[in-house]
Design brief:
The protein is of the alpha/beta class. The protein has three domains: 76 residues, Arc Repressor Mutant, subunit A, CATH 1.10.10.10; 105 residues, D-Maltodextrin-Binding Protein, domain 2 (3-Layer(aba) Sandwich), CATH 3.40.190; 97 residues, 3-Layer(aba) Sandwich (D-Maltodextrin-Binding Protein, domain 2). The chain contains ten helices and twelve strands. A five-stranded mixed β-sheet has the order 4-3-5-12-6, covered by helices on one side. Strands 9-8-10-7-11 form a five-stranded mixed β-sheet, covered by helices on one side. The protein has a two-stranded antiparallel ribbon with strand order 1-2. Helix 8 links the parallel strand 8 and strand 9.
Length: 298
């Protein structure tokens, strides 16, 4: 494959019509420039410049190339130049973000407002997360994802921590659980809503209770935390949900710290390496980080 630097050399040679002047302009020795011309003749299959008296004159093939080369050189230099920051006011693009409903409900409004203010031609398409696999990121169906990194996530996926979250309990206002001091025994004795995309009836909370010799009664299982909060609001059931993911949903309800220890959850921003250097993608990642940081400060 021809060296792209040859395009630049040929452009200068044809413009100057002199090996010596071309060498001076490219800061090469005359002998190095002569070797470059010899290589160009071999690659193109044409003498390009031939002697006429004391000077060099272009061949018909060289004259043909001379008309095309400036734009070719300019395009090649532009293609190899590092990407520049996009003009956000002119940017028109749709980004697909895979996230939980809770993240969209609590962080979406602030994120959309910033996007609208900075880049009105950008649209965010939020899609749900049926699983934690990395195939949508790898195959280009998704541009960004938020969530907890699981074993199913591919090792090539890039990640940046957004915030830490924890599980809390939530019940309707006036629920009997709010009337006395909450203990692990009182919590376990209530009727609970299980949350599992796969319909599982056991999880980290059940493991923590089991270590205390306790077991809770799960009377229904739902696929998301939004549904769990809605059910708890309209019944005497207890929902255990991530605190920061459900802040908006829990308004007007009674929330409480679980009376036993559970590990914190680290929520991350995920993307595929092919978008690492994309300026528009970098901008959007920065917005998500800023929105999450702003919510953490309030």
């Amino acid at each position: 494959m021809p060296d792209l630097n040859l395009l630049v050399a040929l452009d200068v040679l044809l413009a100057e019509g002199s090996v010596a002047r071309a060498a001076q302009r490219l800061r090469l020795s005359p002998s190095a420039m002569s070797r470059t011309l010899a290589r160009l003749r071999e690659v193109v299959g044409d003498p390009l410049l031939v002697r006429a008296g004391r000077g060099l004159v272009p061949t018909p093939r060289a004259i043909e190339l001379r008309e095309k080369l400036p734009q070719l050189v300019q395009d090649a230099q532009a293609a190899l130049r590092p990407s520049q920051a996009p003009d956000l006011r002119q940017l028109e693009r749709t980004f697909t973000v895979r996230s939980s409903e809770g993240f969209v409900e609590n962080f979406g409004p602030a994120l959309l407002e910033r996007v609208r203010r900075q880049a009105p031609g950008v649209r965010l398409c939020f899609v749900q997360k049926p699983d934690k696999g990395s195939a949508p990121l790898r195959e280009g169906d998704v541009d960004l994802e938020t969530g907890v990194i699981g074993e199913a996530m591919g090792p090539e996926v890039r990640a940046q921590a957004l915030f830490r979250d924890r599980f809390i309990g939530v019940v309707r206002a006036g629920h009997p659980l709010t009337r006395r001091k909450l203990t692990p025994e009182r919590y376990a004795a209530g009727q609970h809503i299980g949350v599992s995309r796969r319909g599982r009836d056991k999880g980290p909370i059940d493991e923590a209770l089991s270590a205390l010799g306790l077991e809770r009664e799960i009377v229904t299982i739902v696929g998301g935390f939004s549904t769990a909060v809605a059910l708890a609001r309209a019944s005497d059931l207890i929902a255990s949900v991530p605190e920061r993911h459900t802040g908006v949903l829990r308004e007007g309800m009674h929330s409480f710290v679980l009376p036993f220890a559970l590990p914190e959850i680290r929520v991350s921003l995920l993307w595929h390496p092919r978008l690492q250097a994309d300026p528009a993608h970098q901008w959007l990642r920065g917005l998500v980080l800023a929105v999450c940081a702003a919510r953490a400060a309030t």
